[in-house]
Design goal:
Blueprint (H helix, E strand, L loop, with lengths): L30 H13 L6 E2 L2 H5 L6 H8 L2 E8 L9 E9 L8 E6 L7 H5 L6 H6 E6 L16 H9 L10 H21 L2 H5 L3 H14 L5 E6 L1 H12 L4 E7 L8 H23 L13 H16 L5 H11 L6 H12 L6 H9 L22 H10 L6 H14 L4 H7 L24 E8 L5 H10 L3 E9 L9 H13 L8 E3 L4
Parallel strand pairs: 4-5, 4-6, 6-7, 7-8, 8-9, 9-10
Antiparallel strand pairs: 1-2, 2-3, 3-5
Helix pairs in contact: 1-9, 6-7, 9-10, 11-17, 11-18, 13-15, 14-15, 17-18
Family: Belongs to the peptidase S33 family.
GO molecular function: hydrolase activity
Protein name: Alpha/beta hydrolase
């Protein structure tokens, strides 16, 4: 379970005896919630910054020179907001924040950043240098842990071990051929996990953990930071936060970059089926690359699935222990988030195919994490269930969308996803099964036009596994004023990864509001 350590000053309040929340979404949310945000802004007029406890923040991790210099300048703080904006004087929650001050004297303002998830820590993202120097000169880079994440009242509930085991057991199985025992294990594991969460967490806190309230929190932060308008960079699920902010506060946007765009429409099963197709595209892209390398263990794109399965099966037989083919497939899937990892992934698979297995598991685990990534830290977590007791993912995804409440819908989705990707598809759909019985459900608007907002810049990769390019195209069409920058390559997200064709126009937009040309397409860069 991944957790972010921060200074004790950022400790959160316990969540108990909370008040209910509702929103009608006619206009920009319920009138009570709008009034509640205004009330909080009158009270929260600034952020009290202090030096961060770097030992606690980095947990003794060794930093390189650039990381250490960045860390020395970090400042930590928090703001206090109501759990329920319709009851602004009720119980409060502290939202942890970190800031790296702009390096130029004449700064433009603050740049809020979010790495994705749900469940990703903005505090962790902003604690590392990952943006172009021109951006960090112009902006205070500010990261925050959304409510329910990390140091902001981290949501933890229930044990997911039984459900995790059930999904692992059927990860690559044809969903139409499951045994009664496998079906029962899936249903029981999912129900037990969501049921334990309902028992262990206050139900009204679960009702208020969703993205609409995160967008309201961000509006309070904007004002507390002293910015007249918001400048925001959101990756992956962070683009969903940005779209909800555009829905609620279009006139408060100065500049917004949404990279790896999440769809706002549909249930979690629509998301799962889109991701299944996305992972298959990314896997086939990798296979095509691999076939250009001399020692590639794959014979053709058509046989790639079977050959990968054979490699992993032999590894399981030789290595033994608790390692499963499903677990290794999940590591391969995680490796597909970055094109920069392709050469290393090819070598790891080639070594395993040749029978060299001594370091295979460790090498694959390294690739699934940060090893070989072009960005200083991965954008955790990607918008897929991690199935490791991180309830914050489910707490947001299950509540944000109108999801089916019966098992049959998830089986149908798993069958459709399996048809798109026999390697990865079914496991993705099954992973969302707790949403069928999740205790909170208050769906957000399914379409956002952002009418009245400044031009938003969207970034999409044609081979993005987790947020398929079609989602970026759809969001660009729905938004009243948006430009889509296309990276014609694979991997998840593209900005600040060294692709000059992407980085230069997006950076110019953030700093000087120069909007990239409509239809800009950037070629793949693997070297």
């Amino acid at each position: 379970m991944r957790r972010t350590a921060v200074p004790a000053a950022l400790a959160v309040l316990a969540c108990a005896a909370l008040a209910a929340c509702g929103a009608d979404y006619a206009g920009n949310g319920s009138s009570k919630a709008r009034a509640g945000v205004a009330d909080v802004q009158e009270r929260v007029t600034s952020v009290d910054w202090e030096a961060c406890d770097l030992q606690a923040m980095f947990r003794g991790r060794e930093l390189d020179a650039a990381q250490a210099a960045w860390a020395e300048a970090l400042e930590c703080g928090a703001i206090k907001v109501p759990v329920d904006y319709e009851d602004p004087g009720g119980l409060q929650v502290h939202l942890a924040m970190v800031r790296h001050p702009a390096t130029a004297a004449d700064k433009t303002g603050s740049l809020l950043v979010n790495p994705g998830g749900p469940g990703g820590s903005g505090v962790e993202l902003a604690s590392q240098p990952f943006l172009p120097d021109a951006v960090t000169a112009a902006f205070d880079v500010v990261g925050f842990d959304p409510r329910g994440v990390g140091a902001s009242a981290n949501l933890t509930c229930g044990s997911e071990d039984a459900f995790d085991a059930a999904v692992t057991d059927v990860y690559t199985a044809d969903p139409s051929a499951l045994t009664d025992a496998q079906t029962e294990a899936l249903e029981t594991g999912a129900k037990d996990f969501s049921g334990e969460c309902a028992q262990e967490e206050d139900p009204v806190f679960l009702d208020n953990i969703g993205t609409m309230n995160v967008a309201r929190d961000m509006e309070v932060m904007r004002a507390a930071l002293g910015d007249d308008q918001l400048t925001y960079l959101g990756y992956s699920y962070g683009t969903y936060i940005g779209q909800m902010y555009l829905y609620l506060y279009p006139h408060k946007v100065r500049a917004m970059v949404l990279d790896g765009v999440m769809r706002t429409s549909g249930s979690v099963l629509d998301v799962a089926e889109g991701q299944a197709a996305g992972f298959e595209t990314a896997w086939q892209d990798f296979a095509a690359y691999c076939l250009t390398v001399e020692d590639c263990p794959l014979s053709s794109k058509e046989t790639a699935d079977a050959e990968l399965t054979a490699i992993l099966t032999r590894a399981q037989e030789r290595v033994g222990g608790e390692l499963t083919v499903a677990a290794m497939l999940d590591m391969v899937a995680q490796s597909l988030y970055s094109e920069a990892k392709w050469p290393a992934l090819e070598k790891v698979l080639a070594g395993a195919a040749a029978g060299t297995l001594e370091q295979f598991v460790q090498d694959l685990q390294d690739l699934a994490g940060d090893e070989g990534s072009s960005r200083p830290l991965r954008l955790p977590p990607i918008p897929l269930p991690r199935r490791d007791s991180d309830a914050d993912f489910y707490g947001v995804q299950c509540a944000d969308r109108d999801n089916p409440g019966h098992f049959r819908a998830y089986r149908d989705s798993a069958e459709a996803a399996y048809g798109s990707s026999a390697l990865f598809g079914a496991g993705i759909s099954w992973s969302y099964l707790p949403c069928a019985t999740w205790p909170a459900d208050e769906p957000n608007p399914s379409k956002v036009d952002g009418r009245g907002a400044a031009t938003a810049v969207l970034v999409g990769n044609t081979g993005d596994p987790a947020t398929p390019y079609a989602w970026a195209e759809s969001a660009a069409a729905d938004l009243d004023d948006a430009v889509l920058v296309t990276y014609e390559g694979s991997g998840h997200t593209a900005y600040a990864l060294g692709h000059e064709c992407v980085d230069a126009p997006v950076t110019a937009y953030l700093i000087g509001l120069t909007v990239p040309e409509q239809g800009l397409r950037c070629p793949q860069e693997l070297g």
